[in-house]
TrEMBL record:
<dbReference type="GO" id="GO:0005886">
    <property type="term" value="C:plasma membrane"/>
</dbReference>
<dbReference type="Pfam" id="PF00087">
    <property type="entry name" value="Toxin_TOLIP"/>
</dbReference>
<dbReference type="InterPro" id="IPR016054">
    <property type="entry name" value="LY6_UPA_recep-like"/>
</dbReference>
<dbReference type="InterPro" id="IPR045860">
    <property type="entry name" value="Snake_toxin-like_sf"/>
</dbReference>
<keyword id="KW-0964">Secreted</keyword>
<keyword id="KW-0325">Glycoprotein</keyword>
<feature type="domain" description="UPAR/Ly6">
    <location>
        <begin position="17"/>
        <end position="99"/>
    </location>
</feature>
<keyword id="KW-0732">Signal</keyword>
<keyword id="KW-0472">Membrane</keyword>
<dbReference type="InterPro" id="IPR050918">
    <property type="entry name" value="CNF-like_PLA2_Inhibitor"/>
</dbReference>
<protein>
    <recommendedName>
        <fullName>UPAR/Ly6 domain-containing protein</fullName>
    </recommendedName>
</protein>
<dbReference type="InterPro" id="IPR035076">
    <property type="entry name" value="Toxin/TOLIP"/>
</dbReference>
<keyword id="KW-1003">Cell membrane</keyword>
<dbReference type="GO" id="GO:0005576">
    <property type="term" value="C:extracellular region"/>
</dbReference>
Length: 110
């Protein structure tokens, strides 16, 4: 009877999601740490705000992939649901920021 009790414990215990967690004020999360998500969190999230150069990674209950453009600030959200799936920074936004800077500098010269 003890063997059955142990197997039921492992089946019902479940698996906790692990995500990278950080808040980078330079547009990158160089010092990200692994966090075991609390109960109820089913996704890892990565968010970047261009112009303000802020990157955030964390566990979340739910989120949608997408982006918003407010003119001077563009924000992008990426969500995933496997362990440590939010490792990479939002490359698209980094490229967008570099192109914006180059365009601004070219327009400024002419």
């Amino acid at each position: 009877m003890q063997i059955i009790d142990v197997s039921i414990y492992f089946i019902t215990k479940g698996h906790s999601l692990s995500c990278y967690e950080c808040m980078g004020l330079t547009g990158s999360c160089a010092d990200q740490k692994v966090k075991t998500c609390p109960s109820g969190s089913s996704k890892c999230m990565s968010s970047t705000a261009v112009t303000q150069n802020v990157s955030i990674k964390s566990c979340t209950v739910d989120c949608q992939n997408g982006s918003m453009n407010f003119g001077v600030v563009k924000t992008s959200y990426s969500c995933c649901d496997t362990d440590l799936c939010n490792a990479k920074d939002q490359l698209i936004l980094i490229v967008w920021a570099l192109l914006s800077i180059l365009t601004f500098n070219i327009e400024k010269k002419y």
